[in-house]
Specification:
Number of helices: 1
Strand content: over 45%
Helix content: under 10%
CATH architecture of one domain: Beta Barrel
Number of strands: 33
Distance between the termini: 68 Å
Low-confidence stretches: 1-34
Length: 374
C-alpha cells in the first residue's frame, strides 16, 4: 500500500507540472510545438556587391542595409524592392538601430592625405526617406555599438567610452569612460546595458545616468555578455567558461565550461542559447546550467536567429549554409544553401515570419509560412 500511495503521489505531482506550464524543470520550451518537417521557401533576393558586416537590421517592415562606402539602403520586407538609399560619406562603423521613428548609425570620415584627422559622428535619419535629421560628434573610434531606450540613444565605443544622446535632437545627456577597452558586443535591455572590458571585468550600466550598477572582475578576457530576464547577468570568456551571476548579490548561480571561447549568448524561452568556437550550439537550462541539447556544426557560426513557432536559424561563417533547427530538441528540420561562391556576412535577421540572410552577393529572404506580395 505504501508503494502504491508513493507512486500515486508522484503521478499527481507530474500531472500538476504538466498542467501548470513553466513550474517544472522538464517543462517544454513552449506550448506550441514546431512541425515535424518544414519547407523553407525562397521569397526574394536583393543583389548588393558590397554588403557590410556591421549594420544590417530590420524593423519588421523594412530591412536596412549598410554597404561599403557608407551607403545605406532601405528594402521592403514584403517583396525586396528598394524604398530609398542614402550616401553618408566615409564608412559605417556601427550597427544600425531604430527608435523614436528614426534610424541611427555612426560614420567615420577617411583621413585626408594632408593629415586632417578623421571625424566620427552619429547620424539620425528618417525611416521613411533616409534624409538626415541631425548629426552629432562623438569621440573617435574604429567601432561603435548602438542601443536605444525610449528617448535616448546609447553609443558605446570600442575604446571604452559611452554617451547617451537625445533621439530628438542629438544633444548629449551624459557621457562616461570605462577603465579598459570593450572586448565583446554590449547587450542593451530594460534600462541598462552590460559591457565587458579588457581589465578584464563585467559592468552593468544604467541607461538613464551612465552610472555603474554592477561591477565584477574576472580572470579571463570576456567574449560575450547577456542580460536574461530578472536581476541576472550571463557572460562567457576566451577559455570557454560560461557563468550566470546574480547582479544583486554578486554571487555565481552556476558556472560551466565549453571547449572553446563563448561567441554568443541569447535567450530562448527558459533556456540560454549559446554558441562556442568549438563549433557547437548549446541549449542550456537557465535555472541550473544543464545542457538540454547541443548540435555540432562543420564550422563556426554566427549569432543564431530565433523564429516564432519554435525554430532556431544557424548560419555558418563559411560555405553559405544556414540550418533550421527545432528549438526544444535541436533537431535539424531544413537547410538553406546560398548560390555557389556566396558566403554569409552577418547573423540571420528575423523579421516577422521572414528569415533574412545577409550574404556576399546581397540580401536573401526566406519564409517557413509562405511568401507574401503587395
Amino acid at each position: 500500500m505504501k508503494d502504491k500511495r508513493h507512486s500515486a503521489g508522484i503521478f499527481r505531482i507530474f500531472s500538476i507540472c504538466v498542467i501548470v506550464a513553466g513550474l517544472c524543470p522538464w517543462t517544454a520550451l513552449s506550448a506550441q510545438k514546431p512541425a515535424s518537417s518544414i519547407s523553407i521557401k525562397r521569397c526574394w533576393e536583393y543583389p548588393v556587391a558590397s554588403l557590410s558586416d556591421k549594420g544590417i537590421s530590420s524593423d519588421g517592415m523594412r530591412a536596412y542595409l549598410a554597404e561599403d562606402g557608407a551607403r545605406l539602403e532601405a528594402v521592403s520586407i514584403t517583396d525586396g524592392s528598394r524604398i530609398w538609399f542614402s550616401d553618408l560619406g566615409g564608412e559605417i562603423i556601427s550597427n544600425v538601430v531604430e527608435g523614436n521613428g528614426a534610424l541611427f548609425v555612426v560614420t567615420r570620415s577617411v583621413e585626408s592625405s594632408g593629415g586632417k584627422p578623421a571625424s566620427t559622428v552619429v547620424r539620425s535619419l528618417s525611416k521613411e526617406t533616409g534624409i538626415t535629421n541631425w548629426v552629432a560628434d562623438v569621440s573617435d573610434s574604429s567601432r561603435y555599438y548602438l542601443g536605444t531606450e525610449r528617448e535616448l540613444l546609447i553609443a558605446v565605443s570600442d575604446q571604452g567610452k559611452a554617451a547617451a544622446l537625445s533621439t530628438a535632437a542629438g544633444a548629449e545627456c551624459w557621457s562616461t569612460s570605462f577603465a579598459g577597452k570593450i572586448t565583446s558586443v554590449p547587450f542593451f535591455s530594460a534600462g541598462r546595458f552590460i559591457v565587458a572590458t579588457d581589465r578584464p571585468e563585467i559592468l552593468v550600466v544604467s541607461v538613464q545616468d551612465g552610472k555603474i550598477a554592477f561591477r565584477k572582475v574576472v580572470r579571463f578576457r570576456l567574449t560575450s555578455v547577456f542580460l536574461p530576464e530578472g536581476d541576472k547577468g550571463a557572460w562567457g570568456d576566451e577559455r570557454g567558461n560560461l557563468t550566470l551571476g546574480d547582479l544583486a548579490s554578486g554571487k555565481t548561480i552556476w558556472k560551466i565550461k565549453k571547449g572553446a571561447a563563448v561567441s554568443d549568448i541569447g535567450a530562448m524561452g527558459e533556456m540560454l542559447l549559446v554558441t562556442s568556437d568549438d563549433n557547437f550550439v548549446y541549449a542550456i537550462a537557465s535555472y541550473n546550467g544543464g545542457v538540454r541539447w547541443k548540435k555540432r556544426q562543420t564550422d563556426r557560426i554566427y549569432k543564431p536567429g530565433i523564429l516564432a513557432g519554435g525554430f532556431v536559424v544557424l548560419s555558418a561563417k563559411t560555405g553559405g549554409t544556414s540550418q533550421i533547427l527545432e528549438a526544444d530538441r535541436g533537431r535539424i528540420l531544413d537547410q538553406i544553401q546560398l548560390s555557389a561562391g556566396a558566403t554569409v556576412v552577418q547573423f540571420p535577421i528575423i523579421a516577422g515570419d521572414s528569415i533574412l540572410i545577409p550574404a556576399s552577393t546581397g540580401l536573401s529572404a526566406y519564409s517557413v509560412t509562405g511568401c507574401t506580395t503587395k
